[in-house]
């Protein structure tokens, strides 16, 4: 067995390899996609064997330090691979600061986290919950060799591993990350009534849902200005790669006085860890900007926002009607309408009750029932 540095080397993490693998039979996965999304280069290299291994690892608690958490602990298939809690605890019982996002359709997404510009591949993104320490989620970094040993001693996982990477291949973190990526690429959710409508079935949407779609795209509401494209998010591979087209401040937090960034020595008017893109660019103008989430399956992915701070779709709509959220108590109280970084599209609007029902109906039409019936 040898110790080397590879995909994990950039983070200074060791990975453990066995002997090199011989040539073995692999079956490239066949994709069945609607006409409005395209198979990516990464998808074209995925094998059925690596998908099968990645699926088993995704639902296995062996990847966590305490052997009790799996990827599925925070990404429940029945909830479109989200968690119905604002935040989640890792192996140390320390709560994180981000709401667990849906894993649906990440194959077609430009950016994979709420605010980190550097994580552009699913392999690299998986390092955060596995090896990150702020907060500690799965805690694998503390026992990398021990986890590899546990996996190697699991006969069922071993059979899947060798089918994917060869009979002589030793367990290593590169292959684990590769297989997790392969499985996540298959989480395509594009079979809602909305999709059937886009594919030519004019009866797939009700009249109320069609009215909601018209409102969604209207200049008055301007929802589609950020939630555009096939994913109902600007964060898709067919759109712009520029961060300013994907990350926005929506007035979730108010600024009671002057906008001051903590990097400038002033008081940031955001909770710790919630300055979003600004924490990576160190530009105060980027404070409060987060990736636009997809609205696919949005009716089952509550709570909402990067911090899970809004509990219902009705409350989300009310916030945008107002033109920003107002917090009336606590340290972070303030009026989101006054946030100088708030995007100009969040200008507020007025809905009748019937229009509100139509908009909600359209959002509910994004639910892919077959996707929610995913079997482990």
From TrEMBL:
Domain of life from the UniProt record: Bacteria
Single annotated GO MF: cytochrome-c peroxidase activity
Protein name: Cytochrome c peroxidase
One annotated Gene Ontology cellular component of this protein: periplasmic space
Keywords: Heme, Iron, Metal-binding, Oxidoreductase, Periplasm, Peroxidase, Signal
Pfam family name, one: CCP_MauG
Residue stretches spanning the membrane: none
Post-translational modification note: Binds 2 heme groups per subunit.
Cofactor comment text: Binds 2 heme groups.
Species the sequence originates in: Pseudobacteriovorax antillogorgiicola
């Amino acid at each position: 067995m040898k110790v080397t540095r590879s995909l994990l080397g950039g983070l200074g993490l060791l990975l453990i390899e066995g002997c090199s693998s011989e040539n073995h039979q692999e079956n490239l996965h066949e994709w069945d996609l609607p006409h409005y999304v395209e198979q990516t280069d990464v998808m074209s290299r995925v094998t059925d064997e690596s998908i099968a291994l990645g699926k088993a690892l995704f639902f296995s608690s062996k990847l966590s330090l305490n052997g009790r958490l799996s990827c599925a602990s925070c990404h429940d298939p029945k909830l479109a691979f989200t968690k119905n809690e604002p935040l989640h605890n890792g192996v140390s019982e320390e709560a994180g600061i981000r709401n667990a996002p849906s894993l649906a359709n990440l194959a077609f997404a430009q950016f994979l986290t709420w605010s980190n510009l550097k994580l552009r591949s699913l392999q690299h993104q998986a390092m955060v919950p596995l090896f990150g320490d702020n907060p500690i989620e799965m805690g694998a970094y503390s026992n990398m060799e021990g986890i590899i040993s546990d996996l190697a001693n699991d006969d069922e996982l071993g059979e899947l591993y060798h089918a994917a990477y060869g009979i002589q291949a030793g367990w290593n973190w590169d292959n684990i990350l590769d297989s997790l990526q392969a499985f996540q690429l298959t989480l395509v959710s594009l079979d809602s009534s909305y999709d059937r409508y886009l594919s030519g079935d004019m009866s797939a949407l009700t009249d109320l849902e069609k009215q909601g779609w018209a409102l969604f795209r209207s200049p008055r509401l301007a929802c589609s200005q950020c939630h555009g494209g096939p994913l109902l998010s600007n964060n898709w591979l067919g759109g712009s790669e520029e961060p300013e087209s994907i990350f926005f401040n929506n007035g979730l937090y108010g600024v009671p006085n002057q906008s001051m960034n903590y990097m400038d020595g002033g008081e940031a008017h955001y909770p710790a860890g919630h300055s979003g893109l600004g924490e990576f660019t160190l530009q105060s103008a980027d404070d409060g900007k987060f990736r636009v989430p997809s609205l696919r399956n949005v009716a089952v992915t509550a709570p909402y926002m990067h911090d899970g701070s809004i509990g219902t779709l009705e409350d989300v709509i009310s916030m945008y009607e107002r033109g920003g959220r107002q917090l009336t108590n606590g340290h972070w109280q303030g009026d989101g309408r006054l946030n100088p970084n708030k995007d100009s599209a969040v200008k507020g609007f007025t809905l009748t009750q019937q229009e509100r029902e139509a908009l909600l109906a359209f959002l509910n039409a994004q639910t892919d029932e077959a996707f929610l019936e995913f079997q482990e």
